[in-house]
Amino acid sequence: MSTDPLVVFTPSGKRGRFPAGTPVLTAARRLGVDLDSVCGGRGICSKCQVAPAYGAFPKHGVTVAEDALSPWNAVEERYDSKRGLKPGRRLGCQAQILRDVVIDVPPESQVHRQVVRKSAAVRAIEMDPATRLHLVEVAEPDMHEPSGDFERLAAALEAQWGIAGVTCDLSLLARLQPALRKGGWQVTVAVHSPHRGAAPRVLEIWPGLHEGGLYGLAIDVGSTTIAAHLTDLDTGEVRASSGIMNPQIRFGEDLMSRVSYAMMNPGGEAEMTAAVREAIDTLATEIAAEAAIDPGLIVETVFVCNPVMHHLLLGIDPVELGQAPFALATSESLELEARDLGLGAINPRARAYVLPCIAGHVGADAAAVALSEEPWNSSDLALIVDVGTNAEILLGDTSRVLACSSPTGPAFEGAQISAGQRAAPGAIEAVRIDPETKEPRFRVIGCALWSDEEGFAEAVGPGGVTGICGSGIIEAVAELRMAGLMDASGLIGSAEQTGSPRCVPEGRTHAYLLHDATAEGGPRITVTQGDIRAIQLAKSALYAGARLLMDQRGVDRVDRVVLAGAFGAHISPLHAMVLGMIPDVPLDKVTSAGNAAGTGARIALLNRGARAEIERRVREIVKVETAIEPRFQEHFVAANAIPHATAAFPELARVAPLPRVAFNAGSGTEDEGGRRRRRRRA
Ligand code: FES
To answer: What are the beta bridge partners of residue 231?
Structure first.
C-alpha cells in the first residue's frame, strides 16, 4: 500500500494519494475536483482558494495534523497583504500536501458553482459559461524559429489549458502585439468555446492578469418592453437588471399590427429592425453604466423573444408569420456576432446566442420558459402559461411536452379597457367587492393600504388613483361575478336587479362604479360591459389554447398550473380561476414562476449545456397550431362564460361557490363574443 499522503476533497468526497509536496491544485485536477484557476497556478488570480480542515475525521478515516500542508509561503503572504485572504484559506496552487489532509473547496472556488435561483423550488444554475478567462505565458519570438505572435499564443493555450485550435478575428489581432509586449509575454485572454461545432475564439486580450471580470447580457425582447440582466460570467450574479420600452410600439401595439406594417410599407421591417436594435444598444449602455462596468467587458449576449420579434431583431421580414402556415425563416438557435445585431456599445467581438423557436407562433421566449421550468422533468402534468399579448402555453410531464400559443390580445395588460393603464403607481391592482353590501375596496400600486383603510388618500399621494391595470381588471371582473353583480354570461345587472346603486346605466348596458373622484377633479373609474367583453375574449383564448393541448394529450384535467411572465406573478390564482382563465385545479397547485423567460435566458447565458439541451428538447416538443385547429373555436365559445359554459369547476366550487344569477337570459352573448373574435383574428 502506498504511504503517500491521502487527500480528501469536500464536498465532492473525491480522494487520492499523492507524493508529498504535490500542490493541492494539482491533486484536485488529477482527481477531477472542481477547483477554479485563471492564472494556471501562478499564485496571482486567487481563484483556487481552499479551506483545509484539521483534526479527526472518522467519516473519512483521516486525522489531519497541523503540519499536513506546507507552511504559508511568500506568494500567499503577498496576496494576503495586498488583497486579504479569508481566515483559514490557502491558495490551492501554493499549498503543498505533506501529510493526510481534508480540503474543503468553498463554493466560490468551484468552476461549476451553483447559482441559487430566487424560486427555491427550481434547481440552481450550474456555472459553465461559453466564455472564460485564462492567463497564459506566451513564448517570445525567436529569429531562429520564426512564428507569429498569435500562433505562439495559440500553442500556449493548448499547452497550458488544453484549448486547441483557437481562432480570432482581425480586430483582435490588431490588439495582440501591444498586449503581449506590455504584459511581458504574460496575457489574460477571454476564450469563447461554443457548445457545438465551431472552433474556440479569443474574444479579448489584456496584458498580465485581468481582474476586471467578464460579463454577459440576458435579453428578453418583448413586444412591449425589452428587459436585460447584466450577469457576471464568473459568479453568475446579476449585477443589474433594467428595461426599456420597445420603440416598435410606434409601428403597432401588437405583433400582428407590426407584421401588417411590414406588409404595407416597403422597407417597414428594416425600420422596425433598426428601432429595436438601437433600443437594445441603448439599454446595454445604460445597464453597464448603472452597474459601473466597462461595456467592453460584456462579451456574451443571449436573446429570447417571440417569433415576430425574433425575425425583426435578426432583420428578417416577418411577413410569413402573419399568414398560414406560419413558416419561420429558421427555428434553430443561432450563434452570431453581437455586432451583427447592432450591438455597438459592448465588446466589439461579443457573441450573441439566440434560443431556438418552438414554432411559428411559439417563440424563443417560450423555449426559455421551458428551459427554466423543465416540464420534461415534471412527474405530474404541468400546464405552464406565459401570459402576455400572446399567451404561450406548454403542457407536459416526463413523457411528452406540447406547446401552442393563443392570441389573447392586450386586455390582460390593461389595454382596451375603458379605465385601463399599464402597471404603474396609481393603478388599481387588487379589488374586493363585499358580497353583502356590494361595496368595493381596492389597492393601488405604490400604496400598501386598502382604499377603505384610514390614511389611504394621503398614502396614495397627490397623483391619486389613475386607472386600473391588468391584474386589477381581472380581480374586478372576478369579484363582480363572486358578488352576484355579473352573471355567468358576463352581463352586469342593473341597480334594480342587483340592489346596488353602483350598477349604473351606460348606453344599453350597465357599468359598475369602482371609484369616483370627479368631485376632486380626478377620474371616474368604472368596469364597463365593454371591459368585460375584452376580458372574456382574452380569457377564452387562453383557456381554449390550454384546452386544445389537453385534448391532444387526451386528458380532462391537469395536476398543476404555473403562471409565468411578469404579469403572471401578479395574477391572483383564485381570481384567475373564477374567470376561467385556467382549468380547474386545487388552488394551491397554481404557482407563479415569475419572469421565467428571463430566467431561461440567464440559464442559457451561464451554461453551455443548457443551450444544447434546449435545442434538443425543442425538437421533441409537439407543436399545436391553434389558428387552424377547428376545435379551438368550439373551446373558445364555451370558455366565454364565466368561469365556463360546460366544464365543471369542482375545485373552484369548493373554495368559492358562485351565485346563480342571470340578468338577461338568452341575450346571445356567446354569439357576440364569437363574432368579435373572428373579426380580430382576421
Ligand atoms: S491558481 Fe491562480 S492563484 Fe492559485
So the answer is: 216, 238
